[in-house]
User: Fold this.
Amino acid sequence: MNIKGHTIKDGCVEGEALVLTMPFSFLGDFDLTTGRINDLHDQAGASISGKILVFPSGRGSTTGALIGFYACLFKTGPLGMIVREAEPVIAITAVMNNIPMMDRLDIDPLAVIRTGDWVRLDASNRVVAVEKKMALREAG
Assistant:
């Protein structure tokens, strides 16, 4: 399945999706040293490291962009981000830290992407390709 959208930060990455149903902030929603989501979030204990992070929107402090920088430096941050609607802090986090990011997809990403799906985020060409986890199991 290919979904068109709006590019916040260009780039092309692919990997396993981690879907959050709650807004996300780099400040306070995960452990910077491990990449694991904290206990107050719907995916508590899951790691964002090396994942395509899919979530409704960002929230929180401008300090989140700096925490995002350290997450990239420590290799505990996401490969890419897909959001319903980017707010300024999460958008600047992506731009500042060279994390490919898209928002305003033609189809709600939270309705079609599930944790474990394989996602190719090609923000340079404004397209997200999704391979469903079940289809991957059948092919393997």
Summary: The mean pLDDT is 93. The longest strand covers residues 12-19.
